[in-house]
Specification:
alpha/beta; 5-stranded mixed β-sheet; 23% strand; elongated; binds guanosine-5'-diphosphate; binds magnesium ion
Length: 419
């Protein structure tokens, strides 16, 4: 029922900003004109596109978006890297793969066209035009592009029920689910023992839909008691309902009405979904003898029921074909009518605030943002260095950490004396 794969995704690297100066015939010291690097492309996962399985991901496991281009002289910015779009089946759950387990959820792509960025591209570096200051009109500093995010993720296909079976306990819901699909529900179990939904894929003609048993919605079950969260999400997303009635009950129509009123208490939206009514257990002789009377009783409440035997399979193909047909109609209407708003998930941005810790006597600064600028700073000019680091908020954090003039500071692969 679940299909699960692990893939690695990597955003493109940002292009480097460059150091360049204007060269004009009559201006010996032209101003800086180094363009910025373009941002790297992101890896985006989108649901839908007619994809129904995760099989393709078993072959290809590494996905990398395009890098941004480096900046150029004359303030020309580098081109942004293209996003890499990965299409997955609707109903795919995306989570981070962690070493410790517990894989945190990134997004649950329940509807077509929902999308999530799973690996951001690195930012492009700034060209030297950004580093002009009153005392330095010709900065020989530019930023390197940031590397793209690199992470492993898990894609898990979760089937979502299209059709729910409701009815009193013991009417044969589990038996019907088992008969119509390859699912193996517990037959004649206590109404609330089923905490995990059992889903069955029903094949009818060339098509298929997902069937779920909605267990005993009576006697306070509308309060959600006994039903786990997973259950509720299936139930709520069900598009049509098969209402199963026990043919051997002395009060068939009343049973149906009773269950429907419980259903409205449980969820009024669910109660308004189209229902197919099916009388079960027609293999029993006393039921078979009553078929005409049952049909009349239901006609009086404007209902034409199906007659089935979950035990011997009679009438089930017809019931399932009808369910498929109604399901198609409901889906067609939904596409024509209200549009499901496209949901775009945005993972939390990474922190860019630098942190400081001590390794022996040395103050070590950690901040990807700073590391890449430090990596391209001309340290032979301490004035410039100090100014740029202050501009980026480094002196503030170091000050807080208790740094004093003369202390050693390290950032990336650069080490210097604080003054
Ligand atoms: N004779 C007969 N018994 C059935 C039929 N469907 C279910 N049953 C029996 O009815 C009882 C309850 O069935 P179950 O599927 O567990 O009902 P649920 O509580 O609605 O899920 C079990 O003993 C089944 O074997 C049927 O079509 N004919
Ligand atoms: Mg059952």
């Amino acid at each position: 029922m679940f299909d699960k794969v692990e893939i690695r995704v990597r955003g493109g690297d940002g292009g480097d900003g460059i150091i360049s100066f204007r060269r004009e015939k009559f201006t010996p010291f032209g101003g800086p004109d180094g363009g910025d690097g373009g941002g790297g492309g992101g890896v985006v996962i989108v649901a839908g596109g007619g994809i129904t399985s995760l099989r393709q991901f078993r072959q290809k496991r590494f996905y990398r978006a395009e890098d941004g281009k480096d900046g150029k002289g004359k303030k020309k910015h580098g081109r942004k890297g293209e996003d890499l779009i990965i299409t997955v089946p609707t109903g795919t759950v995306v989570s981070y793969k962690t070493q410790v387990g517990g894989n945190p959820l990134i997004a649950d792509l329940e509807e077509a066209e929902q999308q999530v960025v799973v690996a951001k591209g690195g930012k492009g570096g700034l060209g030297n035009t950004h580093f002009v200051s009153s005392t330095n009109q010709a900065p020989r500093i530019a930023q390197k592009g940031e590397t793209g995010e690199d992470t492993s993720i898990i894609l898990e296909l979760r089937l979502i029920a299209d059709v729910g079976i409701i009815g009193y306990p013991n009417v044969g819901k589990s038996t019907l689910l088992a008969a119509a699909s390859a699912a193996k529900p517990k037959i004649a179990s206590y109404p609330f023992t089923t905490r995990e939904p059992v889903l069955g894929v029903v094949e009818t003609g060339q098509r298929s839909f997902v069937l779920v048993e909605i267990p005993g919605l009576i006697g306070g079950a509308h309060l959600g008691r006994g039903l786990g969260h997973d259950f509720l999400r299936h139930i709520i997303r069900t598009k049509i309902i098969i209402h199963l009635v026990d043919g051997s009950s002395p009060s068939l129509v009343e049973d149906m009405v009773q269950v429907n009123s419980e259903l409205s208490l449980f969820d009024s939206v669910l109660a308004q979904k189209p229902q197919l009514v099916a009388i079960n257990k027609i293999d029993l002789p006393q039921v078979r003898a009553q078929l005409a009377g049952i049909e009349d009783a239901f006609a009086r409440v404007a209902t034409i029921p199906f007659f089935v035997s979950a035990a011997n399979g009679e009438g089930i193909p017809e019931l399932m074909a009808a369910a498929m047909k109604v399901l198609d109609e409901v889906k067609a209407k939904a596409e024509f009518g209200v549009q499901v708003p496209k949901k775009v998930f945005r993972p939390q941005p990474r922190s860019i605030i630098p942190t400081v810790h001590k390794e022996g006597d040395i103050f070590v600064v950690e901040a990807p943002e700073l590391e890449r600028i430090v990596g391209s700073i001309d340290i032979t000019n301490p004035g410039v260095l100090g100014k740029q680091l202050r501009r980026l908020g480094l002196s503030k954090v170091l000050h807080k950490a208790g740094v004093k003039p003369g202390d050693k500071v390290r950032c990336g692969n650069l080490e210097w004396e604080w003054r």
